[in-house]
């Protein structure tokens, strides 16, 4: 383990690792564990050390009382409606999110949103300061809380503080757009270690810190106001063994066969699984698929595309627009190319239970993971882990962080419609021996670099 027994781990993240579920017909409620790789990786350390997790429940209004869930101290943060609008929907998801994803959509800059962001970050920092003891380690997560390291450092200069950004970090020319760029950089430089998904992201941060925050040093070590902050790449991953075991269960294998039988056992199944987000490139992916059908390089009798789109941020205008755009694209493709008994695209706009998702992973001959920009993209790694027979082909965007590790996938530029189409055809026609060779290598990479290795590497570096 990466932490000594007397050193607790305190996680500070936008969301808690549990959901507060009200009890029907009764007062109060109960905590239920949330899904996700971050929770999976950190839960054993928190349980072993009696650590705490500080975060928001996801619901506006008053926070439930602090409590304990499976030896983890849960410290909820309240976010009134105005904070949800300004801090979460506003600055976090309408300013930082598009900016950090290379301005795929224009970021919006509002001083009122920034004020809310500062206030909520201060609330998280104060909550962390109240929760820590001597020798504790604090690990702050993601773009919502970039000011917390500096704020917490001012309250508790004795602490060891780490920060990890799950999204990309933009080049300095784009980061320069942010009116509060110096404040964000100074906030992050309050940490002892700032981690990113890729070395390119770490470089972008270090260059911006030297240019806009008067930091000195290299891409891996910065000095600011007399303090040293280390910078590094720590690509996040998944619980490989858990996904592999789940995908091998007889019930999942039977469900996968039912999927293939219903879609047509003779057809090749192409699968895509995304949050319904404009960064995921869903519309361009469908365009590439439609072009193949139009040119008769493939047919609906030969293959089918299954697109699973998990609803996301439905109250934000850009997300309403992408939902409409995707649904219209599905309608056009199906209207143009479907024939009786063979639908071109099956589109599911809903969350999929884990076992059902594993069944789709096992059923799919080709997995399309083609975001326009992504910090990592764990769907690619989940698919690889699920292919326990070494079958299947992964088509992966070169602009996903996962592409830096998964080089044996078919890498594509998602903006290149013809190139993406050619990659789909190549994946569909790939000889079994080549597919198995590629997948064997990919599985070895994800097995070695699992989510537990990620957490331990970060914490060991933080305390080195």
Write the layout of secondary structure elements.
Elements: E1 9-15, E2 18-22, E3 29-33, H1 37-49, E4 52-56, E5 67-69, E6 72-77, H2 81-100, H3 111-131, E7 137-141, H4 148-155, E8 160-164, H5 172-175, H6 181-188, E9 193-196, H7 199-212, E10 216-217, E11 221-224, E12 227-233, H8 240-247, H9 250-263, E13 268-275, H10 282-294, E14 303-310, H11 317-337, E15 345-348, H12 354-363, E16 366-369, H13 378-386, E17 393-397, E18 410-412, H14 417-429, H15 432-448, H16 451-462
Parallel strand pairs: 1-4, 1-7, 4-6, 7-8, 8-9, 9-12, 13-14, 13-16, 14-15, 16-17, 17-18
Antiparallel strand pairs: 2-3, 5-6, 10-11, 11-12
Shape by Cα distribution:
globular
CATH-defined topology of the largest domain: Rossmann fold
SS class: alpha/beta
Number of domains: 2
Give a verbal description of the structure.
- With 464 residues, the protein is of the alpha/beta class.
- It has two domains: 9-236 and 452-462, Rossmann fold; 240-448, 3-Layer(aba) Sandwich (Rossmann fold).
- The chain has helices spanning 37-49, 81-100, 111-131, 148-155, 172-175, 181-188, 199-212, 240-247, 250-263, 282-294, 317-337, 354-363, 378-386, 417-429, 432-448, 451-462, and strands spanning 9-15, 18-22, 29-33, 52-56, 67-69, 72-77, 137-141, 160-164, 193-196, 216-217, 221-224, 227-233, 268-275, 303-310, 345-348, 366-369, 393-397, 410-412.
- A ten-stranded mixed sheet has the order 5-6-4-1-7-8-9-12-11-10, with helices on both faces.
- Helix 2 crosses helix 3 (111-131), helix 3 (111-131) crosses helix 4 (148-155) and helix 6 (181-188) packs across helix 7 (199-212).
- The longest helix has 21 residues, at 111-131.
